[in-house]
Amino acid sequence: MAEFWLISVPLDKTSQKSLERMQAVTTKANLSNNFKFTIPDLKVGTLDLLIGLSDELGKLDTYVEGVIKKLAHYMSDVIEESKDKIHENLLANGVDLVTYLTQFQWDMAKYPTKQPLKNLAEIISRQISQIEAELKSRNIAYNNVKASLQGMERKAIGNLLTRTLTDIVNKDDFVLDSEYLTTLLVVVPKANYSIWQKTYESLSEFVVPRSTKKIMEDSEGGLFTVTLFKKAVSDFRIKARENKFTVREFSFNETELQAEKEEMTRLAADKKQQFGPLLRWLKVNFSEAFTAWIHVKALRVFVESVLRYGLPVNFQAILLQPSKKNSKRLREILNSLYKHLDGVAASSSLLLQAGVDLPGLGLSNQEYYCYVYFTIDVNLIDL
């Protein structure tokens, strides 16, 4: 299961016993895999600051998760390969996301614990904003090349009515530089080949006899040339349409055809040249964003635990990976073990019923339990 529950409980004697009991019960009954989630000693600050910061961290949490998902989805677009290949590249500090999360260690170099909590949140916010801004610019540059190339590739594999003729026609198929004659390209359905051969010369009195030649065929029909006098082109088009033959709009220009070939080659080269650096950038910055996100979760647990349980700071954060079929039972066990903490929950519920919101506890925006609780879903992309 890709969803984790990040909880914390105060460490008085009663809670310590229930914590040990929880570890024993959940493991034995296969309700969850449990991991200690170590959060360093952080600067607490004032109560007012913590209440305001609680709301800010909630918004930052949502924002960072959104940027991570953008990076993951864009990486899947760039790689254009199988699910396994994409997840091989979604790493955090060089390891898979579950390993990073279950073995989480606070990054002291990036987020010094001597800094106030608000400063740490601002560091992460600036970091993610820079990643998002650069993602947008790289996205535009790469997608422009990709879209142009895909457009040309679609034209190259479409049916004979729409596909590019760059690699199909050549100079010898046309009467060129004639004052009176021109060569048209006509798409004829397969079922009408015999009709075409019998009637094309009579579609206009100015068609050159025996001038038709099939130069290309697909599953639906064939592309034929026919030579006629220029003054008869309009009349020939009308008569051809009446017989279910389609005259393609095309004028042979060797320079333009060569330019189209070169443009497709150039776009393919540009895409290939951008691919490597772009993928490396995505991998590095996905890792940066994901690790920052887990630090936001740690900050939220710290702030909510202080608000919920008070000072001095004395709580244990635990990461649970629930068994999908037993998640309801796990919730019941947790509620049973930590119901002695429910005094806060009960009083908070009364305040909410009276119309008083407690922003520090985030009650109006999320599920509320008698212990601090957040979810972390590492399944960031559906493939």
Feature tags:
four-stranded antiparallel beta sheet; Alpha-Beta Plaits; 383 residues; alpha+beta; subunit c (vma5p) of the yeast v-atpase, domain 2; proton-transporting ATPase activity, rotational mechanism
Describe this structure in a few short sentences.
By secondary structure, the protein is an alpha+beta fold. The protein has helices at 13-28, 47-79, 83-89, 97-102, 117-157, 193-199, 233-242, 254-309, 327-337, 342-353; strands spanning 3-10, 32-36, 91-92, 95-96, 181-189, 213-217, 221-229, 246-248, 315-322, 372-377. 52% of the residues lie in helices and 15% in strands.
Q: Could you describe the 3D structure shown?
A:
- The chain has 383 residues and is an alpha+beta fold.
- It has 2 domains: 3-149 and 268-377, subunit c (vma5p) of the yeast v-atpase, domain 2, CATH 1.20.1460; 171-251, Alpha-Beta Plaits.
- 52% of the residues lie in helices and 15% in strands.
- It is built from 10 helices and 10 strands.
- The strands form 3 sheets. The protein has a 4-stranded antiparallel beta sheet, sandwiched between helices. Strands 6-7-5-8 form a 4-stranded antiparallel beta sheet, with helices on one face. A two-stranded antiparallel ribbon has the order 3-4.
- Helix 1 (13-28) packs antiparallel against helix 9 and helix 2 crosses helix 3.
- The longest helix has 56 residues, at 254-309.
- It starts with a strand and ends in a 6-residue tail after the last strand.
- The model is unreliable at 349-354 and 360-365 (pLDDT under 50).
Write the layout of secondary structure elements.
Elements: E1 3-10, H1 13-28, E2 32-36, H2 47-79, H3 83-89, E3 91-92, E4 95-96, H4 97-102, H5 117-157, E5 181-189, H6 193-199, E6 213-217, E7 221-229, H7 233-242, E8 246-248, H8 254-309, E9 315-322, H9 327-337, H10 342-353, E10 372-377
Helix pairs in contact: 1-9, 2-3, 2-5, 2-8, 5-8
